[in-house]
TrEMBL record, chain A:
InterPro entries: ImuA_translesion, P-loop_NTPase, UCP037290. It comes from Marinobacterium mangrovicola. This is SOS cell division inhibitor SulA.
From TrEMBL, chain B:
SUPFAM superfamilies: DNA/RNA polymerases. InterPro entries: DNA/RNA_pol_sf (IPR043502), SulA_CellDiv_inhibitor (IPR050356), UmuC (IPR001126). Transmembrane segments: none annotated. Keywords: DNA damage. It comes from Marinobacterium mangrovicola. The keyword Lyase does not apply. CDD domains: PolY_like. It comes from the Bacteria. Residues 18-142 form the UmuC domain. This is Protein ImuB. GO terms for biological process: DNA repair.
Amino acid sequence: MALVQLMEQGQLWRGAQDAGIQAEALESSGYPELDARLGGGWLKGQLIELLQSGEGRGELRLLWPLLRRAAPERPVFWIDPPHQPCALSFLQADIRPETQQLVRTHSLKERLWAIEQALKSGCAPLVLSWLGEQVTTPALRRLQLAAQTGGGLGLIMRPDSVRSQSSPAAYRLHLDSSDRGAEIALLKRRGGWPLPAAAVDLPAVI
Amino acid sequence: MRWLAIHFPWLALELHGLPQDKPQALLDNRQRILLGNPVAEAAGVKSGQALATALALSPELTLLETDEARLRQSLEQLALWAGGFSARISVCPPRSLLLEIASMLHYFGGLEALLDQLSASLKRNGYNARMAVGETARGAELLARVQSWTEGNTERWWARLHGLEIGQLALPAKQSEQLRGVGLRTLGDLLKLPRNELAQRFGQPLLRELEKIVEPGAALPEPFIPPERFRQKVELAAEIIHSQGLLFPLRRLLEALEGFLHIRQQQVSQLHIALYQREGGGQQLTIGHAAGTASAAHWLELCRLQLEREKLKAPVLALQLEAEEGQGQKAHNADLFAPAQAQTTPAELISRLRSRLGAESVQPLGWCADHRPERANTLLGVTAEKTAGKTAAGGRDTLPVGLVRPGWLLTRPQRLAPSDQRTLHWLRGPERVSSGWWDGPVTRDYYVARWPDGRCGWVFRDSSGGWFIHGWFG
């Protein structure tokens, strides 16, 4: 098979020199230094895997700029978050709590179904979900396809123990924190090599 | 072209909702065959046959009985369904409907498109029908009893109408006999005779009947007035054991509901399904749609999801569908430039999720003014949702300033081990929260602390001196 054919099918992509991505297909992360490393922002209709060990490293503050853009007619879906999102902290960050739809399921099967429905619907610009270690690659591939169908961003938070597993998600990030603040390593991204950990300037806690 | 007659030759059989690929026949009260479906007819079953003969011809024959009242009821259900296609419908017992279509042709994009949609919908619901268009209502109805007629050409239609035989005009049997006795064969023959002579010889009623058939403006059929509220029941011919089996009879009811709502320009947001079960038992299902819809396809999808979760306690004998009072439909025209991506609205998505996961499973975030963090954070329930905008907007004015709240609240505070406590780096505090003497008093000192691995948490010490984690700064 010729290289051109592979590229047409999207199985092979060019590195950073390819500037073929339209600006409107990108969603800014709201952090200029992260946008620069992503090549302008998140590519819409993709799955993003965010790996971290334990909550409290800045995963919500990373999303604030995206959450602020949510409107009632295009709500954000939170599927099975590990804790209760705090409405008051959202209001303080100028995010409307009523545009955040909280979804609770009873089993992994239902959770995957709900994520897929939300991604596929095309009415949710951002779908946040939490998955553990026991998710299979075909299940993730389904979600990546659903995100492509719907055109929204699908964010999956997973423990960093799955770092060595391969994943069909378009982006893979590792979020870490230290005294100096939060750091993000890009384990996988569209149109480029993985990038080592670098600081992101998240809003301070206090 | 003004009228469309839909004739249901096998309605008495089809109303039972059994699969039509098996031989079925209707019995009269003298145990003779009244009507066989096409499969049974192919096997040689004819009307008037003795039961024994029919069973010998087709051993698998399913025998059904239908009374007048049920036939009338299902015809009215079909009249409700037809509301989706025309605003003026007449019921012509025992087995026909009349739709005024002149005004609808433009909307549907021509006669052919309208007929296609009608046949597709009938097929989905398991009905076989003959459709005939006509210049006069009665003419179309008589023609549909004999054959389908979907040509738009007026002249040919009149020619065909005049070719109807005397026996096909639904005149009293005695009169048909008399007419045939004087050598008349078709409607055309009859119309050639001078009217006054006809009246003298056969009486005024015949003249009036002929007028109905051939005069486009004469005596219009009485319009069907749908009931104020939608409540329809179907008896099932065979007991249904699996909840998924209810979908077929439900589809018929939901499509009738769609027509019913369409004619009133309404939509509903809640349906009640009552299942009547063996030994007098019953089960109730309530299905909701967040924004309200009239679409049978949407409702069917929601029913399917809900029924997947539902276990039937006993076999179902009958089911009834009742719709809550409808609300006015939001003006929605099929949008030419509708965005290609948003095939589903958030309300539809939320309804779908709720149908499968339960009504309380999808809730928007909200808050109320309470000093206790766990109380301030609430979910706006299904009912409160409609006022959500207001509450939140009002809430923003009274937003407490200077308080630090974490993004994550733990559902239940976790005890902090003393060894962990020593490693924490204290960033801020204390903030005294003391409230709720009326229901669940709370006295706590809150601190913001950083863990050695860089995570930031929200911890408190309660009045007894115990340390707890209550949130994470995500």
